[in-house]
């Protein structure tokens, strides 16, 4: 019997409906279904009495798979909460773009049956980490340092293994993984990085100097960033969800984590197919 956990974090009505449909289908296929107590309170016990209740942080103890219902933000939230487990995540897109959550709700029944029958591929994605206030924080997509409380630029001094890279005078600086290269970094002019590449990318946000451009570095380095702001404060944002205020002069050390995130992907499709479908990458505009 497969143990499948269902994850939904933002109490979105549409996501909850697809979660219910999936729970019934999984149960009919002989799978054990696990859901966080925060979600089960919205379910009719008479209709969903077969569901096991377990906090999200403990899914990794028994689950063979976690299915995330929402958008990419929900996927990132699930990944962060399951960072210390080895349980793979499948993203069902109930949002808009759905780059990480690439499975469509229209194909939900066939998607679940494919998983039960073993028709899928498993990929691993790298994660970066740092310490803030003695707390270790992780990012699957990116870590961003940005201005706070003022329209004035900030300066971020960047070092690779102690070697000075440069001083970024800009609205902020993005440190992204290959997975995150199609997120905030891309909108700031950063390159698309294949998920299998072992690199990080530094992408400045609206830099004041024309010579400051995205820089790709090996992910074996230890990256140190020292922030300077006229307001005395800088925003630190992890995956667009975890936010801290750090003081002027703070030094942040970022490196590739030993933790990895496992994702379930469809058979018969590649990363390039995803780029074409979601971002219209390499589309020939002359063809109708």
Please name the defining characteristics of this protein.
288 residues; alpha/beta; Rossmann fold; 6-stranded antiparallel beta sheet; globular
**Helix content estimate:** 10-25%
Q: So, the CATH homologous superfamily of the largest domain?
A: Probable inorganic polyphosphate/atp-NAD kinase, domain 1
Multimer state: single chain
* Major beta sheet summary: 6 strands, parallel
Q: How many beta-strand elements?
A: 18
What is the count of DSSP helices, taking H or I runs of 4+ residues? 7
Q: CATH first level of the largest domain: which class?
A: Alpha Beta
Shape: globular
Beta-strand residue percentage = 35-45%
Order of helices and strands: EHEHEHEHEEHEEEEEEHEEEEEEH
User: Between the first and last Cα atoms, what is the distance in angstroms?
Assistant: 48 Å
Helix and strand composition category? alpha/beta
Give Rg in angstroms. Answer: 20 Å
**What ranges have pLDDT less than 50 throughout 5 or more consecutive residues?**
none
- Average pLDDT works out at 92
Second-tier CATH architecture of the largest domain: 3-Layer(aba) Sandwich
* Total tally of structural domains: 2
